[in-house]
Amino acid sequence: MNSTVPAIVILGAGALETARRIQTRYPGAQIHGLAGRVEGDVAYSELSAHLRELYARGTPLVALCAAGIVIRCIAPLLSDKGAEPPVLAVAEDGSAVVPLLGGLAGVNRMAREIADALGVSPAITTSGELRFGTCVLNPPDGYALSSLTQGKRFVSDLLAGESTRIEGEAPWLDDARLPRSADARLVIRVTPQAWNGSADELLIHPRSVVAATDGLDGDIVGHVQHALSASGIAGLSLAALLVPIERAGEVTLTEAAATLGVTLRFVATPATDSKPHTLLAAAMRVPHDILAGDSPVALALAHAPVDPSSVGQARGRLSVIGLGPGDARLMAPAARAALDAATDVLGYETYVTMAGPFRADQRVHGTDNREEMQRARHAFELAAEGRSVVMVSSGDPGVFAMAAAVLEALHESGNARWGSVELEIVPGVSAAMATAAQAGAPLGHDFCMLSLSDNLKPWEVIENRLRHAAGADLVMAFYNPVSRARPWQLDKALDIVREFRSPETTVVLGRNVGRPGGQVRHMSLGELRGEMVDMRTMVIIGSSLTRAFSVNGKTQWIYTPRWYRQV
Q1: What is the DSSP letter of 161?
Q2: Is residue 389 a part of any domain in this protein?
Q3: In terms of Cα–Cα distance, which of 274, 191, 259, 267 is closest to 231?
Q4: Which domain holds residue 554?
Q5: Is 224 left (phi over 0), alpha (psi -120 to 50) or beta?
Q6: Contacts for 384 with CB less than 8 Å, ≥ 6 apart
Q7: Which of 121, 182, 274, 510 registers the highest number of CB atoms within 10 A of its CB?
Q8: What phi and psi, each to the nearest 5 degrees, are found at residue 539?
């Protein structure tokens, strides 16, 4: 299914103001700017390739440039009129709005919306749209046109002077300038029933049917199609496929829903009865009738188009993300996308604040930094309800952060509801990586990361690992180097390291890297003292080969060569 949020594509700064005005009409729309010419929300390097990629993904396109440029860019991809997304060309100054492609996907509606936002008239050229004031072949969300070929012949007959009548509920046509007659030969029929073969009908199907299955039989698509056919229901009337939540994540179910072209929804299996018709009774929240109740598929016919979100629940999602070191430019796009899609955001209060601002409809759950397991369990409970949850860490979530706590909570729970949650770990730029990048490449050869905190492991273990890492001549990155409760541990760790490293060994300190006031400095191991470091400092101790040098007497760079030889 095509996206309803357009990409607004511009070539230069002269179009930016118009693009912003269009953007206000479509919440969530991003401005795609040509790199090196104009800064938008998304950068691209070559217009033709970028437009073709967006078009191929089914993304509605609003290109602020000449119509001819857009046509030449995407012409090689033109094939199926029924599958193309809306494509519009808009003058840079907002003086013209020209719908080019996607008449069946609502391009003329978009043209009117954009023109209204810009205070101009859209350049609509579609005959039926001009004559009747609407695109008869583009029913609103919740309805589907049975046949484009049949529809084009139907509209052609109307344009030739025929009249029509409407059977069924079609409120979007109430104000259309259609030639109507109670005894017209042509009929617009709105029904979930399959086509009866009449060439005089324009058939529109309300998506008002939900199919339920326990998912145990492999041929889910075949069983659903058989149930629809046996009830005389058109496949395009299907709105959702309903399955037990315990089967969430099974590829066969996801593939079946995709083949049927519907949304996959879930419901908790009743303890005493898991038959498909029982699933429907538990999940349907609108008036409906059961059309087929036999296993392995049951059908429910609602009295109006069904919003899939009103059936059962979505599969919950838990994304564990890393914000990076604090600089928004260093946050992974996948982490930003997860935050934008979230219904709930959890994390240590400080990190949650860094992840904002948030929309009014997003729930924020900030907690103390010492409540990691409780936070992880809370995240799973929310996600198991079908919510889209984000767990926030700084840096990389898998490096001394929340990813391990989340997986530990799942591992120990044995909770089938938690197991149904779609779980993803989105990597981030760790503090060690951010500090190393500003210094140069001190982690250019073998290295290790060590936490000096003994909150979750004995200090004896830390000492043992320090000796092995220092003895192996690894570059070492120290997390949690000191705190008010343990101010002595860094100096103790340095005493161990100095047994194996010379006083001239290069050390890098990165404090608040990626945040306001952040700084990176270097010194020798002999100069380093514990009082120079706090909890916000990353300590990187070089190997015997780590080197420092200056360029033009100003820029200082530190690196560890990729080769190794004993010195």
Answers
A1: T
A2: yes
A3: 191
A4: 432-559
A5: alpha
A6: 316, 415, 417, 418, 420, 421
A7: 510
A8: -110, 120
Half-sphere exposure of residue 114: CA atoms within 13 angstroms, side-chain side: 37
pLDDT tens for each residue of 390-429? 999 999 999 999 999 999 999 999 888 899 899 999 999 9
DSSP annotation of 387 reads -
Residues 6+ apart with CB under 8 A from 450: 462, 465, 466, 469, 476, 477, 478, 479
Q: Which two tokens stand for residue 493?
A: 């760790």
Which secondary structure element, helix H or strand E, spans residue 74, and what is its range?
A: helix 67-74
Could you tell me the CATH number of the domain that includes residue 44? 3.40.50.11220
Map residue 204 onto helix, strand or coil.
strand
Q: How many domains does the chain fold into?
A: 5
Q: What is the pLDDT of residues 125-141, one digit of tens each?
A: 877 777 887 778 888 88
Q: Mean pLDDT: which of 9-23, 98-112, 142-156 is highest?
A: 9-23
Question: Among the three residues 90, 125, 160, which one is the final residue of a domain in this structure?
Answer: 125
> Would you give the DSSP letter of residue 233?
B
Cβ 208 vs Cβ 304: under 8 Å? yes
Residue with tokens 């101790």, as numbered in its chain: 541
Does the pTM surpass 0.85? The reply is no
